[in-house]
Amino acid sequence: MRGGLQRVFSLFVGLLFVAGAGALGGCSHSSPSAETAENSEINTPPTDYKREILAAMHAYLNDPTGIRDAEIAPPALKTVGGYPHYVVCLRFNARKRGTDYAGVKEIAAVFLVGRFDRFLDKAQEQCAGASFAPFPELQKLAR
């Protein structure tokens, strides 16, 4: 009986140690997303956003040539993933296959620390109310 109590006691002490270490570990640093949100440098406005978007479109589109109806909105601070980031909204009609077009698509380019980070395909919320202007540079993309 004594051996059984000793094992239970050892198990109990071990569990307390693990729980205590986890609680202390959680207090020792803040989460990366909290640090990122507090860092004002992350929301540096993009300066060369058109060039960066044009470069990224080569990887984003299967066929970057022959784009029609391209429009762009100026950078604006919008909420992405619960945090404010600079977003540039785009509208365009890209080729689907051969001479067929996919239809007008609206996406958002997300910028972190003033540099292009990624595209959001579902950008209705971020691009609502955006003021679009022609973006002829996008229509002139080559392979």
- Calculate the mean pLDDT score and round it: 80
- Tell me, briefly, the overall form: globular
β-strand percent reads 25-35%
Major sheet characteristics: 6 strands, antiparallel
Distance between the termini: 79 Å
- Supply the helix-strand structural class: alpha+beta
The unreliable regions are: 11-38
Count of helical stretches = 5
Q: Give the SSE order as H and E letters.
A: HHHEEEEEHEH
Question: What does this molecule look like?
Answer:
The chain is an alpha+beta fold. The chain has two domains: 2-30; 40-139, no CATH class. It is built from five helices and six strands. The chain has helices at residues 2-27, 32-38, 49-60, 124-127, 136-139, and strands spanning 68-72, 76-80, 83-97, 100-112, 115-120, 133-134. Strands 1, 2, 3, 4, 5 and 6 form a six-stranded antiparallel β-sheet that branches. A hairpin with a 2-residue loop joins β3 and β4 (100-112). The longest helix is centred in the N-terminal third of the chain and has 26 residues, at 2-27. It is globular. It starts with a helix and ends with a helix. The model is unreliable at 11-38 (pLDDT under 50).
Describe the secondary-structure layout.
Layout: H1 2-27, H2 32-38, H3 49-60, E1 68-72, E2 76-80, E3 83-97, E4 100-112, E5 115-120, H4 124-127, E6 133-134, H5 136-139
Antiparallel strand pairs: 1-3, 1-6, 2-3, 3-4, 4-5
Task: Jot down its keywords.
2 domains; 6 strands; single chain; 143 residues
Provide a quick synopsis of the model.
The protein has 143 residues and is of the alpha+beta class. It folds into two domains: 2-30; 40-139, no CATH class.
